[in-house]
Queue: 3 jobs
Job 1
Amino acid sequence: MTPLVRGDQNALLAAPSLHRRSAEYVATATAGARFVPVWVATGVLVIVAAIIAPGTIQHTSWAYVLPYMTILAVAALGQMLVIMQGGIDLSTPGVMSLGGNLIVGVSLGRDHRLALGLLACLALGAGVGLVNGILVGIARLNPLIVTLAVGQIVAAYSLRYARENTNSLPVPPALTSWATGKDLGISSVFWTGAALTLVVALLLRYSVPGRRFQAVGANPRAAWMTGLHVRTHVVFAYTAAGTLYAIAAILLAGIRIYVDPAFGSAYLLAPIAAVVIAGASLSGGLASATSTWVAALSLTLLTQMLLVLGLSTALQYIVFGAAIITGMLISGDRFAALLGRVLRPAAPSTGQVEMGNNPTS
């Protein structure tokens, strides 16, 4: 056997470590790339809107788009936390409906009772989320069925509560005044939602509990083996989500002034679509709060563009549905999987590994 010179031996020794570094690079690249498509798609949508419906990006249009995209984004943040744990939550419309009615019913439409109404709304959201979390995380029931059933119960009680307590009362003027006010020429609702999104993003990325939360969602079995309480994280995800739905209800109530029977009904599937289009996987794991925000902007901007174009309601639903399907087909999760297959480094041959581990051969 021809003896190896020292350079050959060093190259063989380095092969496994180079392979590991390449694999780490690919993992990092694919994790970041999953959130790129939604940013690109939103940019393309803005360009298309400027060409075929310039009114979509005018100042008067943004006055509508920014508040409503913020409400969708806040609801989507709650849905994102649930999806990161491999779940789904269909109780959003029910929570928002009853939450809005509680604001009016508890406050009696008066400013001095507004704080009580807001607390009642937040307590409702956290309570419904806690029930969902216990049924899904502790009782191990199917999240789709559980949250749909809980949402229906809450929505039904909302109709009864509105009939007996609100009596067509408006939202307290102080809330309406705040929601319609502007700071630096932009809606206060937008700034509130932006701050909330930033807090969620920083906590998930840089805090120890946030990183643990992501780790549990990415691989519950491995997290359990390392001593993390998987069920506790699931319960927390649903509870936090319910609280965020309640915040979205507060923002929506401030903009709408009156809480009608359809209050919150538009937020059943749109938050889920925003989270998936933003690059999250329905199987759990990584997600991005800022990308979810951009996805909410994209969906709301698309709706506004269809209104500016004057399409019929039927055509609006067709285009909107087709856009969601297209967005899911090119979502960051699928893009990341494709990129991972393209960039995956070739494994070193068995002979190289064995010789690298035994340089005297």
Note: The first strand starts at residue 182 and ends at 183.
Job 2
Amino acid sequence: MIFRQAFEKREAEEISPNDRRLLEILGVDPETEYSTRGKAALREATVFACIKILAESVSKLPLKIYQEDGNGFKRQVSNDLATLLKLRPNPYMSASDFWRCVETQRNMHKGNAYVNIEFDDRGNVVGLWPIDQERVTIYVDDTGYVAPGVKLWYEVETEDGLRRVMPDEMLHFKSMLTLDGIVGISPLDSLKGLIEGGASAQKFMNNFYKQGLQVKGIVQYVGDLNEKAKKEFRERFESMSSGLKNSHRIALMPVGYQYQPISLTMHDAQFFENNKMTVTQIASAFGIKLHQLNDLDRSTHTNMEQQEKQFYMDTMQPILTMYEQEMTYKLFTDRQLSRGYYLKFNVDSILRGDLKARYEAYKIGIEGGFLKPNEARVKEEMPTDPAGDRLYANGNIIPLELAGSQYVKGGGQTEEEGEDEGNSGASGDTGNTGSE
């Protein structure tokens, strides 16, 4: 299948500043004043918090290169690519800034993040450049009609025009949902109604406080007023009774006017219940736990650590796996892949508990014979010791088939039986000697 957009002509068109289409291009929905497109989605507090938590969770994890041999042994590799990923993927971004940018883009309304790979003349990776998702279009040509042998490519809008980028030159990170495996689906598309409701609730609260907590009402007047008189009276009355500076002050009414308030409290409108439900639904769509949004109604000191582990397993692990697989495939050569090279995030900062729990885990690993002391020291960023590269085992642990053999002496007798027989034999010898 060939996407129809691949053959559409691009034509320049002038748009008036008053044209409603201009608002759509700028990411503003003219119908609701709120939009899930571009930066406009971040105006809703819960969406901003969820994307911020995901971006910071990825950016704080070190990304390392490992090599696995045929026996399953893994060792960390230090080379130019490892330095680039650890310190500065490009001259303008630190590694932390780079991943915050990429993860934020991935969670925006298009659900895709793109990173252009820069190679030198020898084919080595020398830079990673994030691209605004609004500038990228994906084309698929299943029949090879446009370019034989090329099934998929990316078209990037630049200041100099359009540039075609091949798949091996582009890192493509998708949202967790995809219908075709090529393009990700952002949760913002499904949350549009909730986000608009949340943004409207924020605007309602702002207006509520700006108006000085004054309720709406009806002014009754015996007689008739023309439109100009109505407008003048409304403006004077609102300027006298609305706003924070007029909060709890007395409003004067002309003779013949009577004010009747219309009271609909937030409790009657179930404002707080609906707002809390909106927060819960948006957080659930992004995989964020409520305690991370400072909702501690169901959180305790005992289950907080467990919730953090659940956040890693349920939310972060699929995201990190997606990143690792895409980068491992495209940043290494075929020769490096055949030699067992791969990329992996170090998630110890998420899974590690307090100091006592970590040290107890190290103790179990070392005494169990599968963790070397130096490996535990490296995890704690301590210098290695020359004698710490050996495996140790507790001498009290033996194979099941040898259980009890440590008590067996010659002749198949246990030590306890041998001691009993020895004592009785000594007693008999003494008796015999005495009788003789």
Note: The chain has 14 helices and 13 strands.
Job 3
Amino acid sequence: MAKAFQVSFAPEKLWQAINPWVFNLPGAQFGLVNVELGQTAQPEVERTILDEVGSYGRQLGRIGDALEVLLDHVKLDGLTQAETDALAMLRGQLAAVRQVKQRAAPATPPQARTLRSAAG
């Protein structure tokens, strides 16, 4: 049997469970974008570095680039297998980061890429 036509201007359940204890939990997110600076003695210095020098990702990227240069030009004789494996994993991660950057980069003509890399 068909149900009779009904008009409803509000949902059937008009309640919502609110747990006030959640607001005081460590790690709770209140904004759309929250950056946890961690435990630091000087949070203002940390914020200034992020604003003026670069994000953590940019800083880590530059460190990775510098490490790759060193790995390419320093003799690495006498390493244990575990040390060789650790460097191979780092090189793999650095290569994966490069691939992501290349996919995210806007398409530029080959001449512009050559000029940009030569400039520094």
Note: Helices lie at 43-52, 56-73, 81-104, 110-119.
